[in-house]
């Protein structure tokens, strides 16, 4: 039974060689439509994007015959502009960087990594956090504690202890023991060997928890007993607001 021209398949695997196609290429990138040339897409031969359009095609097409790439279409325009004119984007840097990594366009990746936004994140902040023991695991632990405390509540609190040096960690031990006796969960960060301060780490914690979609704030935690020093030097209360 033949299929009429008015009822095309929703998608099909391309079986012909791209060498036989028109040099003009129509693309559907995550629902955004683009028109460009094969030479533009293949400008950097070692990239994943070039490989998509080299030799035997590996892409499917949409119902209109446009090559379909299942990626965010909004940022592909910046990728395309770079391929056309070597223009490095100045907006949506973080998102374009993710796409450049996916398409493996090495020259663009390197230029974006030199931008203040990516440099600050990868070289400065991430290198610092890599020196804070169990940082990522502690972020997840904070979230688990907050969610467990959220039953029938608008807000939940998580106590965090932040110590930069081994000496500070020793000073806090009695307070940690007292909190444990009171059956209060405490998430401990540090110590670490790097220049950033306790205040810097607190900002990082808030930034990374908020990046996961949570609404949080923090303030010094003042203990009721058992502290032989100012508790707000090392203990903080993170407040998760649910509604």
Give me some keywords for this one.
single chain; 243 residues; alpha+beta; Potassium Channel Kv1.1, Chain A; 2 domains; five-stranded mixed beta sheet; 9 helices; 39% helix; disordered N terminus
Question: What would you say this structure looks like, in words?
Answer:
This protein is α+β, with helices and mostly antiparallel strands and 243 residues long. It has 2 domains: 24-114, 2-Layer Sandwich (Potassium Channel Kv1.1, Chain A), CATH 3.30.710.10; 135-241, no CATH class. The protein is 39% helix and 18% strand. It contains 9 helices and 9 strands. The chain has helices at 38-41, 48-52, 76-85, 93-103, 106-113, 116-129, 135-148, 166-181, 198-210, and strands at 12-13, 24-29, 32-37, 60-61, 67-69, 155-162, 186-189, 215-220, 235-241. A hairpin with a 5-residue loop joins strand 4 (60-61) and strand 5. Mean pLDDT is 87; it is low at 1-19.
């Amino acid at each position: 039974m033949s299929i009429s021209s008015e009822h095309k398949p929703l998608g099909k695997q391309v079986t012909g060689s791209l060498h036989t196609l028109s040099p003009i290429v129509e693309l559907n990138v995550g629902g955004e439509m683009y028109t460009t040339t094969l030479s533009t897409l293949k400008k950097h031969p070692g990239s994943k994007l070039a490989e998509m359009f080299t030799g035997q095609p590996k892409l499917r097409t949409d119902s209109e015959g446009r090559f379909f790439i299942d990626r965010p279409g909004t940022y592909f325009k910046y990728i395309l502009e770079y391929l056309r004119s070597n223009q490095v984007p100045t907006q949506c840097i973080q998102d374009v960087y993710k796409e450049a990594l996916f398409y493996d366009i090495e020259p663009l990746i390197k230029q974006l990594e030199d931008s203040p936004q990516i440099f600050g994140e990868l070289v400065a902040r991430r290198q610092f956090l890599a020196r804070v023991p169990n940082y990522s695991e502690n972020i997840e632990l904070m979230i688990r504690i907050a969610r467990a405390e959220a039953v029938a509540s608008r807000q939940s609190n998580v106590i965090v202890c932040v110590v930069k040096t081994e000496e500070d960690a020793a000073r806090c031990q009695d307070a940690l023991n007292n909190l444990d006796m009171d059956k209060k969960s405490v998430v401990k960060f540090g110590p670490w060997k790097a220049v950033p301060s306790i205040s810097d780490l607190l900002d990082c914690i808030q930034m990374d928890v908020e990046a996961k979609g949570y609404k949080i704030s923090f303030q010094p935690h003042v203990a009721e007993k058992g502290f032989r020093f100012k508790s707000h030097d090392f203990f903080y209360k993170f407040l998760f607001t649910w509604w």
